[in-house]
Amino acid sequence: MAQLMDGKQTAIALREQIKIQTSELIAKYHIIPHLVVLLIGDNAASMSYVRGKELACQKAGIKSTIIKKEDTTSQAEVLEIIHQLNQDSNVHGILLQLPIPKHLNSDFIINQISPSKDVDGFTWTNVAKLSNGFPHLVPCTPLGVMRLLQTYQVRILGKRAVVIGRSQIVGKPMAALLLKDHATVTICHSKTADLRAVCKEADILIAAIGVPNMIDSSYVKIGATVIDVGISKVDGVIKGDVDYDSVFPIAAYLTPVPGGVGPMTIACLLENTLTCYRDLVGV
Ligand code: NAD
After folding, report:
1. What is the pLDDT of residues 83-141, one digit of tens each?
2. Which of 40, 67, 134, 246 has the fewest beta carbons under 10 Å from its own?
3. Max CA separation in the chain (angstroms)
């Protein structure tokens, strides 16, 4: 039977550490860490995520500002806001809440964020650092997975890791972080042949697909660590990519959904905000 990896408790502990570090930094340097979130449009899910981020900042003693713009905002206006935030020495982190309206070029806009204020680790400068083995500001969800693996002392070195999903937000940075820690890494995706057989070889299996309950025990090696990144709503209930009841009896470690990777993502956003702060304040 698997040991559950409690993301909720791990995130609470991490957020507590960040709160202590924040108050120490403010006492020493008299500068308050400040995260600005740019929200464009009225996507209900995005608004709720942004509120969650605001609350988390508040609890950690980090200042947060939400800039809310209409979904008709032009690309030039968005770029102007980002350029101003880049110049503002009182702003340490900038987050563009995704998705943004279709008339805006998200890749281009993201890359106008100063890499030293890029709390999501999405700019190509930070992506290049990660893929060359020098991670600094890395996407919050895969960073959260690494923090969970560290907390539960899951050995990575020399292990066979399989990541299902190749997105820029989760799959690819996840694979790069595991590779940096000396796992032998395979990335799978929707075109992978014989996915089941590839997954079955994994000591560490990361599912970041978005297909509820897809990964049952037939994909999992006995004694594997299984991390479920997926979040889907089925009849109003949050489901992961892993069929929990099927996998629980044979995995060594398993993350629940909800209460696994999700809470770690927000904690790591706070961690990245402090990383930006330290770089910019020079401490
Ligand atoms: P995405 O849609 O960008 O990528 C999904 C990936 O899964 C793609 O690379 C695709 O090739 C692969 N895939 C799809 N169907 C497949 C199949 N049948 N077999 C094998 N591979 C398949 O999604 P994403 O942004 O990477 O997010 C993945 C999941 O993680 C989603 O459910 C998302 O909601 C969730 N998510 C959770 C958090 C969190 O904090 N827990 C954060 C980000 C994303």
Report:
1. 999 999 999 999 999 999 999 999 999 999 999 999 999 999 999 999 999 999 999 99
2. 134
3. 56
120 is catalytic: yes
List, in sequence order, every residue forming a beta bridge with 57; answer none if it has no partner: none
Tokens of 69: 């713009």
Convert the pLDDT of each residue in 40-54 to its tens digit. Answer: 999 999 999 999 999
Q: Tell whether 111 and 144 lie within a shared domain.
A: no
Q: What is the pLDDT of residues 176-226, one digit of tens each?
A: 999 999 999 999 999 999 999 999 999 999 999 999 999 999 999 999 999
Question: Same domain, yes or no, for 38 and 85?
Answer: yes
Q: Are 19 and 60 in contact (CB under 8 A)?
A: yes
Q: Read off the pTM.
A: 0.98
Q: Report which DSSP code applies to 241.
A: S
Q: Tell which phi-psi region holds residue 230, choosing left (phi > 0), alpha (psi between -120 and 50) or beta.
A: beta
* Closest atom of ligand 1 to CA, residue 265: 40
- The residue whose two tokens read 């935030």 is 85
Ligand 1 neighbourhood includes 173 CB (under 6 angstroms):
no
Rounded Cα–Cα distance for residues 34 and 3 (Å):
37
97 catalytic per annotation: yes
DSSP summary character for residue 2: P
- Look at residue 129 and tell me if it is in a domain: no
Query: Which residue's C-alpha comes closest to atom 5 of ligand 1?
Result: 209
Outline where the chain has alpha helix (H): 7-29, 44-60, 75-87, 106-110, 124-131, 140-151, 171-180, 195-200, 244-247, 261-281
